[in-house]
Amino acid sequence: MPEQSDVLAELRDETEDGELPYISKSRITTYKTCPRKFYLTYIKGLRTPDTYYTKRGRQVHEAYERYYENVLEHYEATGEIPEDLTEMLPSDVSLWADWIELYISNFILFEQDRLAEAATPEEYLPVAVEAEGWDWEQSPPWMGYADVIVNASSVPQVDRDSGVVIVDFKTGKTPDPKYRDDGIFLEGEYYAVLFEEQLDVAAVAGYFPMNDDFVVSPLDSERRERIYQYVEEMTASDDLENFPIKEQPLCKWKPDDDCQCDFYSICPSTWGQPGGPGPTYS
Fold first, then answer.
1. In 10 A of CB 239, how many CB atoms?
2. Single residue among 219, 234, 264 that ends a domain in this structure
3. What is the pTM of this model?
4. Which residues of the chain have pLDDT under 50?
């Protein structure tokens, strides 16, 4: 996982309590999911417990990051890309052994396709790994980490040979198309804002190794305006304690306590309760 830069620490130190030191993709996606959850997480600073899914996401992302670092180091030392790309996986097998099925196996196939598409080894090499991007024109500033940035000429799903592709790795299931506009496509638009001044961005995409799906985010001005609107709402409230609740199945989707929002017990949401919206879970 990326090390937090000194800039983040400085911004936090300089920001008053109850204010946002910077904007990130996770802040925006949390806000659009539920403003109340955003408030509890990023204004109140409440942290949720680690789960199977967060552990999986963290380990898979770290395995991919170390893979790319190993590829760069190997090429610098030998001038070659190994035929067997599995040799570039982290030497710490415990990091990825639990995720060989689908997450590691499909990732290696994804990388083999990129290697085959690239005309030269240099075109295959990542342009940047866990790249930190900033937009200082905004207030608060916008920032984010790109999992990997690769040459467009190495990505068979992108019909362009120049420029780069920003790839975000997703360890969940590929979202249904009806959920992509305000999900993976919105995130892609955010990454484009962060890096378009620095790089010739040919495309922004999410790769879902669970389903071996590479989803390219179409960029458009309407979606970008929606991001600005979310950020304005997040930062303009004069009554921070009254961010509204977005009643929805994500509040509580089954009777079990582990099938509800992490903040359900301290949130006024009535989803799943008698008289509340949605099904009742007794």
1. 6
2. 219
3. 0.91
4. 1
